[in-house]
Amino acid sequence: MAVDITTDLNKVRNIGIMAHIDAGKTTTTERILFYTGVSYKIGEVHDGAAVMDWMEQEQERGITITSAATTCWWKEHQINIIDTPGHVDFTAEVERSLRVLDGAVAVFDGVAGVEPQTMTVWRQANKYSVPRMCFVNKLDRTGADFFRCVQMMVERLNSTPLVLQLPIGAEHDFLGVVDLVGMRALTWRGETKMGEDYDVEEIPESLRAQADEYREKLLETLAEADDDIMEKYLEGEELSVQEIEDAIRRATLADKLNPVLCGTAFKNKGVQPLLDAVVKYLPSPLDIDAIVGHKVNDEETKIERKPSDDQPFSGLAYKIASDPHLGKLIYVRVYSGKLEAGATVLNSVTGRKERIGKVYQMHANKREEIASVGAGQIVAVMGLKDTKTGHTLCDTNNPVVLESMSFPAPVIEVA
Ligand code: GDP
pTM for the full model? Predict the structure, then answer.
């Protein structure tokens, strides 16, 4: 049965995962989908399936992350993972999807560090001030060097990395991470299960001095980015975990720095803390400025649309995909109002009315048909005939163009 999806927007994260090819974007996404499970939404943790079983099942069905937006749940938060193609050839498409997502996780290969495609996508994300976190992956590989990778973030990306974790062990003996905010060790020793399954331990004696040093660096960097923390830091006040986390969130949303985490998606170490950080530090649709479009045929007259169900409907078609079971699907981000299955909407770019067919929210292992969906959400829509990537769909009585389409000027031949 089709359901209405109106979630507390504070608990929605629309994120993209960006990486140079082979850095581990697919593996990290698959791990995220595994850990979040389907039932985690209601607090129920599956502990039956081992990672490989689940992955094999998913691969057979071929729908793991072929979807342009996959929804999963972590600790009562809805995370929509938006697929941003990593290949340079798709630069334009990457740019477009950056407008659709609110925050991003950049995945790095711990051996190769910062690679060219990441530099390209990073620059595009800079253009739109997309809040970003970094995940240094593949720390189990020979030659992996977390600190070198962080240094490359400064040199090649010109970013301000905020190191939140330190690796414990290296290569084959990579065990887990030191959490510099909570000053504790998170380790993975056994088989990994869905949900939150790391062990919390004391920071190993051998890493104590390094942890203290990096904790100090963390506070210093944070103080430079945040006045509240600066004041307390200068006074020598003790900061609570909550205060530090709040400041990290503020500074990340303001695009002043990038929290850095690490692990290995391959061996399932580090992905759950990454999910925690996505929920804690990346923006909800409410943290993003209201979108400003313009009147049809009048780019000068601006129209603002807020992410609220009370506003007239507006949405952006950002990707057309072909689903093996459903045929042509158009992925739409709803910026304001509600999108309803069966409703007639206006495509303000073609000037034609379109009927919305079925509407789906795509999950890792199922798709959910929904009757209506609110602002801030991302869904796949069937039945649209003339809508293309970049077109705005909106309420027929309240037209708006969200993104100007620049076509080459038509050539008029005079006989
Ligand atoms: P993508 O191109 O960024 O999507 O990269 P993939 O996720 O397909 O990973 C590329 C290759 O690296 C695959 O063979 C993965 O199995 C492997 N890989 C991914 N993450 C890790 C990791 O943390 N450690 C190791 N050793 N290999 C990994």
Answer: 0.89
